[in-house]
Design a protein that fits this description.
With 189 residues, this protein is an alpha/beta fold. Helix content is 36%, strand content 22%. The model has no long low-confidence stretch (mean pLDDT 94).
């Protein structure tokens, strides 16, 4: 069983903000795969159970706000007995330009409060990540920047990236993670 977590903040005021690309990509992927968006509300989150290649997969959008995302992740992992090896977290990344992404296993939270929360609660940083670039603007306070909205141009770039990331996630269910990284990771451009 795999757990795919998209990070974001609940509430209308956060829709389409940079910090919500995890939520946005999960919605995009499920829509593209024609998986009915009938979310269950439990475990301090919204989740959908489905199957890929005969394996049960849970998609989770924590509803705890970013800083407490780990609480929801832990509850789902504990209830369904999901191993850290089967956890993939999709989050925004300030160090990657819009249109870029990086697959990574383990490492630092790089100051991302959602990742910090997950690491704190599950007790390890050695889980898989799909980091989606949101660029950075050093002239804007980081909190204001990540809670801001994408420009129309950046939103178009992001939609194109999401289309590509669907193939990445499809392959995630088929390939080893090291093969997946070798196939898709590229330099930040």
């Amino acid at each position: 069983m795999k757990l795919i977590v998209g990070l974001g903040n609940p509430g209308k005021e956060y829709v389409n903000t940079r910090h919500n690309v995890g939520f946005d990509f999960i919605d995009y992927y499920l829509n593209k795969k024609n998986i009915e968006n009938s979310w269950n509300n439990k475990f301090s989150g919204s989740f959908i159970q489905t199957f890929f290649n005969g394996e049960k997969v849970i998609f989770l959008k924590p509803q705890t706000y970013m800083n407490l995302s780990g609480d929801s992740v832990y509850q789902v992992m504990n209830y369904f007995n999901i191993s850290v090896d089967d956890l993939l977290v999709i989050s925004d990344d300030l160090d990657l330009f819009v249109g870029n992404f990086k697959l990574k296993k383990g490492g630092s939270s790089a100051g991302h409060n959602g990742l910090k929360s997950i690491e704190s609660v599950i007790g390890t940083s050695s889980y898989k990540r799909l980091k989606v670039g949101i660029s950075n603007n050093k002239s804007i306070d980081t909190k204001d920047y990540v809670l801001g909205h994408f420009s129309k141009e950046d939103r178009k770039v992001l939609e194109s990236l999401f289309s590509h990331l669907c193939s990445v996630l499809d392959d995630y269910f088929k390939l080893s993670f090291s093969d997946l990284m070798n196939k898709y990771n590229q330099k930040n451009r």
